[in-house]
Amino acid sequence: MARTDKFLALLNKLIGDASAMIQTAMPVGHGFRQIQDREAIMRWSNELILFKSLAEELIAPWSARLRHTGEAIYTRDMEPQLSALKAIKFAIDEGLLTRFEDLVIADTIGDLTEQADYLLGQNFFLAAGVIYRAVLEERLRKLCERHSCLPTKPHSTLADLNQALYKARIYDKSMMLHVTALASDGNDAAHNKPGFTKEQVERLQSGVRDFFARFST
Questions:
Q1: Distance CA 157, CA 72 (A)
Q2: Distance between CA atoms of 21 and 101, rounded to whole angstroms?
Q3: How far apart are CA 183 and CA 132, in angstroms?
C-alpha cells in the first residue's frame, strides 16, 4: 500500500475512533466528560503520531493542533485534534491538500480559525472556506453535546446539527436560517463549486466569528 493510501486509511480510523470515544464518554460533573477506555486513548495517541509521520509536510497547517499526550482522559483534550483531522479530510476529499504544500505556516499558529484567516489573507480562499466550514460544524456539534440534543442518526451532518439546535430552542429561526446560509457557502467551498468566490469566504469568516461570539461552548 502506498504511503498516501496508508495515511488516508489511518486518517479515517483516527476520526472514527475519536468520534466513538467522545460519543460514549461519561459525564463527570462541571461540564466535563471522561473517556472510559484508557488503553484506547493511548492507542489512538500513538496512531496519531504515526499519521503525522506518514503525512509529513502535507499537514503542516494543522501540525501544531495534532498533539495528544495519550494520558488525557477528557473529551475536551481530544476534540481539537478531531476537528483538525476532519479539516484535513475535507481538504483531501476535495483535492485541496496539494494547495497547502507550498505554504509556510509558523508552528505557533495552532487555532484552526487563525489558520483559515492566514490562508484567506494569502488568497487561498477555497482552502480557507473548507476550514471555516469544519470549524462551524465542530462548534455546532459541541453545542449539541452541551445541550444534550445531538442527532440520533449516525454521521450527522452540519444541517442535522443546525436543525437539532433549532428544535431544542437553543437559537431561533432567524439564527437557524443564518447558519444554513453559512453552511451553504461552506459546502460550496468543500465541493469546489464552480464560480465560488472569495466574497463568499469573507462572508463565511464574518458569520463564523459572529456565531462564536454569540454561542460559546
A1: 27
A2: 31
A3: 10
The tally of CA atoms less than 13 A away on the side-chain side of residue 159 is 5
DSSP letter string, 115-178? HHHHHHHTT-HHHHHHHHHHHHHHHHHHHHHHTT---SSTT--HHHHHHHHHHTTSS-HHHHHH
State the architecture of 111-217 in CATH terms.
Answer: Up-down Bundle (1.20)
- Give the residue extent of every domain in the chain: 1-106, 111-217
Residues 107 and 126: their CA atoms lie apart, in Å, by 22
Chain segment 73-122, per-residue pLDDT in tens: 888 888 888 998 998 888 877 766 654 433 333 232 336 788 788 888 88
**pLDDT tens across 28-78, in order?**
877 888 888 888 888 898 888 878 877 766 777 788 888 887 777 888 888
User: What contacts 205, CB < 8 A, 6 or more positions away?
Assistant: 116, 117, 120, 128, 132
* Beta-bridge partners for 29: 32
